[in-house]
Amino acid sequence: MKWTEAKVIFDYKDKEAAADLISDIFNQFGLQGVVIEDPDEEPAEGWGDGAVEKPANNSVTGFFPSNASLSNKCLALEEKLKELESKLGISWHITYSEIDEKDWAESWKAFFWPVKIGKNLVVKPTWREYEPGKNDIILEIDPGMAFGTGAHPTSALCMCMIEKYLKPGNSFLDIGTGSGILMIAAAKLGAGRLLGTDMDEVAAEIAKENLLLNKVDEKSFAVKVTSLVEEINERFDVVAANILTAVILNLLEDVQKVISKNGILICSGITEKNRDVVIEKMKLKGFEIIDTETSDGWVCIAGRTNIGNLLNF
Question: Residue 13: phi, psi to the nearest 5?
Fold first, then answer.
């Protein structure tokens, strides 16, 4: 399968805000993740010195299937970017290039190494050797075409929260599961019933493969191809959503229906500038904020259902 890389190079006084707005545009096309490049950002811990060449410009890149709808999507993308430029003054230009699925999935693997997250979790690429420590909990991962290596701050923050709040036997829901990394972490930490959702069929299949690779009992988990919580009719003790701010704000309209009494919602993929707006929306929807963590400009928020304020209960 062929894919088209749409790279939006931009300039704006508030680089973080611009990247977030452009990412939101890509999200409107159903993309589950984007690549954000920032010349001023230092490589994440665990990447070798000099392994990653710093980008020349600020940019946001999304990947579209090279199919019959590609032209319309590209035109719609450019129209939305023009609106941003007109309203906010974000200058931009876009480049397109076609890549093979195999090239996309394989080219970055040379830079992905095992990384320790939280107290005991270790995310290990399947193609790397690693000698585990006494208390290490190893998560084997091959993201393939899905987003979610565990190395990005948003994923790492989520896993730390899961490690902190998930109790053995808890049921766990991962909204926008991607590679399945958060489901694997939950399973390794003793979760009982597991469910992941993703709009991308390829990601859903990769998540299943990674769960089986980690010897998670096939009867204990499922991965659904669906948008957010539309087709979920059961409740979970811990719910995680590592997605964009705009999607989280939309999710908060309906997420109560899938959370158990005294359940916990973990939200990540939130930039620092959007921290307060997400917290306020969570409070408005009946959540008690119990924890927040920040890393490299990203925020993860944990809230507990406040039964008195949740009309669904």
Answer: -60, -40
Q: Is the dihedral of CA 53, 55, 60, 63 positive or negative?
A: negative
- Write out pLDDT tens, residues 264-275: 999 998 989 899
Instruction: Provide the 10 A C-beta neighbour count for residue 195.
Output: 21
DSSP symbol at 57: S
Pairing type for strands 121-125 and 137-141 reads: parallel
**What is the model's pTM?**
0.70
pLDDT band at 105, cuts 50/70/90?
low
Q: Which two structure tokens, joined as six digits, stand for 209?
A: 């493969």
Look up the domain containing 161 and give its range.
112-309
Indicate whether 91 and 118 sit together in one domain.
no
- DSSP at 46: T
Asked if 128 and 100 sit in the same domain, the reply is no
Work out how many domains the chain is built from and give that number.
2
Q: Strands of 298-305's sheet, edge to edge?
A: 221-225, 194-198, 172-175, 236-242, 259-271, 298-305, 287-295
| DSSP code per residue over 132-180 | --TT-EEEEE--TTSS--S-SHHHHHHHHHHHHH--TT--EEEET-TTS
